[in-house]
Amino acid sequence: MTIEQSAREERQVRVSKVGDRVFLGLSRGAGVFILVTLAGVALFLFREALPALQADATEFRDSDTFLQYVGPLVFGTVLASVLAVVLAAPLAVAVALYLTHYAPKRLARTFGQFVDLLAAIPSVVFGLWGIAFLAPLLARHVYPVLHENFGWIPLFAGPVVPSGRSMLTAGIVLAVMILPLMTAISREAFSRTPRLHEEASLALGATRWEMIRQAVLPFGRSAVVSGTMLGLGRALGETMAVAMILSPADLFSVNLIGPENPNTIAANIALRFPEAQGLDVNRLLATGLVLFAVTLVVNLVARRIASGGAA
Amino acid sequence: MTVTVTRSRPVDEFEGVVGRRRRVTDRLATVVMTFAFAIVLFPLLSVAWTVVEAGLERFDPAFFARNMELTLDELAAARAGETVGGAGHAVVGTLIVTGLAAVMSIPLGVLTAIYLVEYGRGKLARSITAMVDVMTGIPSIVAGLFAYALFVIFFGPGTRSGLAGAVALAVLMTPIVVRATEEMLRLVPDELREASYALGVPRWKTIVKVVIPTSIGGIVTGVTLAVARVIGETAPLLLTAGIADGLNLNPFSGRMTTLPVYTYRSYKFPSLPVEAYIDRAFAAALTLVLLVALLFAVARILATVLEPKGNG
């Protein structure tokens, strides 16, 4: 080996080492940047929210303490989201089963793509549909029937709001919005049921439904639960659909079809923030922190279930 | 002959007496599933139909050419029932804000994913993964508050700008990009990397010349879908970019209207004549849906075009 050759090789090694270091630095820097920014921003958010938490109730125009202010909002948020999940979860499981075990393959594939696209439809579009199409429809044909037959249940105490802009409408629109996500997760899990389990069950004389109960549902259970939790998380943070549909009041009420409905945290921020000033801004930021904490817990639980069940 | 008869009889009786209940249950389950599918199909098709039908009302060239800074003549024409105004400024605003968000989050997300898959071991990688997990679950309106809180520090309370909106969208988009890229990079077989190392190729060159080209189709598709996910975000932009009547090309100062916010404001807080505002809201919603569908189509095409080829 000549001196020249070895010098060139050494240079190449050095270049590649420098390249490696630069590349590692870049990619690690990106990761660290995400960490630092997010931590920083969370800190700023907290700093901006703090004045509202420390302020005296009399400093606000409505002279509510923070708990008085955020209470009905948390209640409304939970009510709307639970409503959405209760409506969507059984449907999502049934549709996922239909697509994996009943529907013709072609239909399943086409519908699957359609659902994926729907999951990306902006929430403002769902809100528009809810208020322009669904709310009048429900107010005219469904809510009066509910009120007449089930009016003795506090949920349907009424009086029916003529515009249809009630909690139940918001819940239904939210349910429609989280359906694609929840269906996709269940479908994924059901379609991965081991073939042998299914065939063993059928070979023992089970009908298709019995096979589903014996083989498919137990296999997919944890995915269904975690999908439901993720749907709940999505519904909790969903803003525009609720902001467009509800005409909110500052109260606790379980009346789902009446004219006075508690607002949700997210919708309240969207409604008030553009015009808010001074301490009100800080207070809205503080409610945002509350929402963040709630969704964080829900999502963590969902992830814990998903990873625990898979093992 | 007789053997088959005696053997088939008990089976039939078994199905007829004991099995009826099971058969009915099975049939019932099939009906319920199919019915559920039909129920779900209804609202989903109805959303699409409503938006297309009501949106076509104002889906004309003037809608994209004009904005909401109406001249006196136009105001008079509007009162006379003519169609005026448009969402040109909102389309431009959406493209600017989403574009900026993409410029911020794509390099950041892809590099982070490369770090996590190719280099990341130990504490740092674990905490980054955890943070990305947290980010995936952030409600969009909280992302808007994040961005607002950040910009308050530099520009004081009440600040609104296209850049703030882009930062809010980037907070939502980055974790999607990281997840999608990570998934694709993990699909690259280790044999490819090892073959490259065995030839003496340094690590970074292996990543740039072997790993990324192998997975580029999936990455580009994932990134395109991430753009589709954030382009319709309303809440964070309402808080950070705000709304203006006219065109604003400068993301660094002043309010900037985007299509989702335009849709929301036009419907929720219309001026007179109300009808015109509602028509414009639906036309803007239709534009948004078409943009999302277009991005989906692009993602699909890119996925097939950029698929790794066996030779070459």
Overview of the structural elements:
The complex is a heterodimer of chains A (311) and B (312). Chain A is built from eleven helices and two strands. The longest helix of chain A is centred in the N-terminal third of the chain and has 52 residues. The relative contact order of chain A is 0.14. Chain A has two domains: 54 residues; 213 residues, Orthogonal Bundle (MetI-like fold), CATH 1.10.3720.10. Chain A starts with a helix and ends with a helix. With 311 residues, chain A is an all-alpha fold. In chain A, strands 1-2 form a two-stranded parallel ribbon. By secondary structure, chain B is mainly α. Chain B has two domains: 56 residues; 218 residues, MetI-like (MetI-like fold), CATH 1.10.3720.10. Chain B is 77% helix and 0% strand. Chain B has 13 helices and no strands. In chain B, helix 5 crosses helix 12.
Q: Helices and strands of chain A, in N-to-C order?
A: HHHHHHHHHEEHH
CATH class of the largest domain in chain B: Mainly Alpha
Query: What is the terminal separation of chain A in angstroms?
Result: 56 Å
Which secondary-structure class do the elements of chain A indicate?
mainly alpha
Question: How large, in whole angstroms, is the Cα Rg of chain A?
Answer: 26 Å
Q: Between the first and last Cα atoms of chain B, what is the distance in angstroms?
A: 68 Å
- What is the strand tally of chain A? 2
Strand content of chain B: under 5%
In the CATH hierarchy, the architecture of the largest domain in chain A is: Orthogonal Bundle
Q: Characterize the main sheet of chain A.
A: 2 strands, parallel
CATH fold field value of the largest domain in chain B? MetI-like fold
Shape call of chain B? globular
